[in-house]
């Protein structure tokens, strides 16, 4: 709901008077802001232009010598950098477009140098290189685009690295390291979030939480699909400790946070992290085969996280969709586990009763719980 | 302002340093010519390129992950061939030019197995032509960069341009 809409509702409920409403509106009008539509469109324009530039570079202009290409690139990069510095003190769309363009132009340069010197590419090294050298400029951006692109690049590079494995042992090692990193970023995003620019820390929390939910949704589906295979144990070594360290970092970061982005979201994150941590206990994931319940639990944890986020940001349709997916999955797993219709029916009735009980308790005691949380926070 | 200046200068200097180091390695490296065979995918970040494998006999006979290959000119002096392959720590001091790489199974790779080609010439370079070779610049430390790609005695650009012209005239 827009601010105007909220103010009208408050006026109707006599929460505020007309004079207060006018003061609020005057105050908000005086705040410097740019339309998010303008930022979005400008960001799209920058990304499209830079993508076109990268494509032109990729076409390998053979008519221009390599020396000319390099000199032209570094000259134009320096000019763009100079414009960024000149405009850095004036907040607004132009500043953000220049910063985003600079960050993406650096990526184009990495591709150009790789092409000119015929460098072998494993896919993730170039991305990690780019992420490292543009991190300072990404921290200075006040738009969401570059922050989100940075974390998207990190997710992409980690995914490519994880699957660039040799043998099943290499895959397990890399998977646990890649799984630990989103937890670690979540911990830093909460515990040290006050030390980073707000947009960058928020993007980090968002991407890492999404990565955890996606990972467990995928693993849950895989476990469900392989549920009837003959069980065999995989030697996981000590690699789960990497993930567990990340989980501990995440819980510690949330507990010691000096920021409070959203109470509901924060508690949803805690619940997801804690329950996902229990589900990655080595004895459970070490045995592949008896996975209907395990797969269902992971799947429900992931979609519950999505439902919690939807509730926190007041997206009712997304919440309803997530609840529907959970409901369907719930019913399916009962049929798989119990087999017969009678046993499934009894199980579902009992579970439905528990769910209704939880809903009643939530309705009855939600205010009390919210006040208790408020006092504690 | 100072923070922005540092944030902007860092990537520029790092990229400049990186390009300069690659140019320096190429300048000081010994040039050798090796025969190749291969295939051709596409990379959005680097355009069209030819992928190939170096033809080095017995480079991975021991299946070591880290391998060095000694190179000496063949009779006739145009191409180089492998005279020894093994662990880099066991390389003889008489081996003046050597290529540092790794073995994945029987395949030796040294990070030089691709060469960028112009998009316009890609249609006639769907596969690596026979009698292909590459010129590598190899530093004293054994790391290499690809300098030129030959098909017979023509550079790949000359070969592809000739093939394109023949195709258009048909």
How is this structure best described in words?
The complex is a heterodimer of chains A (about 375) and B (about 170). Chain A is mainly α and about 375 residues long. Chain A has helices at about 5-10, 20-30, 35-60, 65-85, 95-115, 125-140, 145-165, 165-190, 200-225, 240-255, 265-280, 280-285, 290-310, 315-340, 340-375, and strands at about 230-235, 285-290. In chain B, strand 10 and strand 11 form a beta hairpin. Chain B has helices spanning about 1-30, 155-170, and strands at about 30-40, 40-45, 45-55, 65-75, 80-85, 100-105, 105-110, 115, 130-140, 145-150, 155. Chain B has two helices and eleven strands; from the N terminus they run H-E-E-E-E-E-E-E-E-E-E-E-H. In chain B, strands 1, 2, 3, 8, 9, 10 and 11 form a seven-stranded antiparallel beta sheet that branches. A four-stranded antiparallel beta sheet of chain B has the order 5-4-6-7, with no helix packed on it. Chain B is α+β, with helices and mostly antiparallel strands and about 170 residues long.
Describe, in short, the structure shown:
Chain A is mostly helical and about 375 residues long.
